[in-house]
Write a structure and sequence with these properties.
transmembrane helix; transmembrane; 2 domains; membrane
Length: about 160
């Protein structure tokens, strides 16, 4: 081996090839340390920040005309909410149920809903309808079956929505 093929650093003499290997491994170790100590930032357009945002079920411009549940049907007639079938609710309780449906605050969740309570059909003045499902577990969940999306109801209990 020729003298110009050897390098000496801090009292250690090695060939050029050996020093190159040492440098490569040192750089790999530094990259490995920085990768796990300070991982790269995630992109900001992921769904996590949006999931914390509360939203309402019925838009402000949507005019609700009827709420149909298995044992209760509420309809808007002459700008007053009434039972379409025989019901045990007073006018104050009927308006409370309707106001609860109008004021639902919910956040999207990615949990599997279980323990189905009931189906509810919401009818609007423009002729559109929306079917929603209420579930009891793991917490009160409203499911939009057409969109395959689950929402956690934040501000109400099931009895407030069903008039029980």
């Amino acid at each position: 081996m020729k003298v110009n093929e050897k390098r000496k650093l801090f009292g250690v003499t090695m060939t050029k090839r050996a020093w190159n290997n040492v440098l490569v491994y040192v750089i790999l170790i530094i990259m490995f340390v920085f990768w796990y100590v300070a991982p790269p930032l995630k992109e900001t357009n992921e769904a996590a920040p949006e999931s914390a945002e509360q939203m309402g079920l019925i838009p402000d411009n949507g005019s609700l005309s009827a709420i149909e549940m298995p044992d209760l049907t509420l309809q808007l007639a002459n700008s007053e909410w009434q039972c379409a079938n025989d019901c045990r609710l007073t006018n104050q309780q009927i308006s409370g149920v309707v106001n609860n449906w109008l004021s639902i605050k919910m956040t999207p969740v990615d949990v599997q809903a279980t323990d189905k309570i009931t189906d509810v059909l919401l009818s609007f003045n423009d002729g559109n309808t929306a079917r929603v499902e209420l579930y009891a577990s793991p917490y009160l969940i409203l499911r939009l079956p057409n969109q395959q999306q689950n929402f956690k109801i934040e501000n109400l209990h099931v009895s407030q929505l069903l008039g029980r």
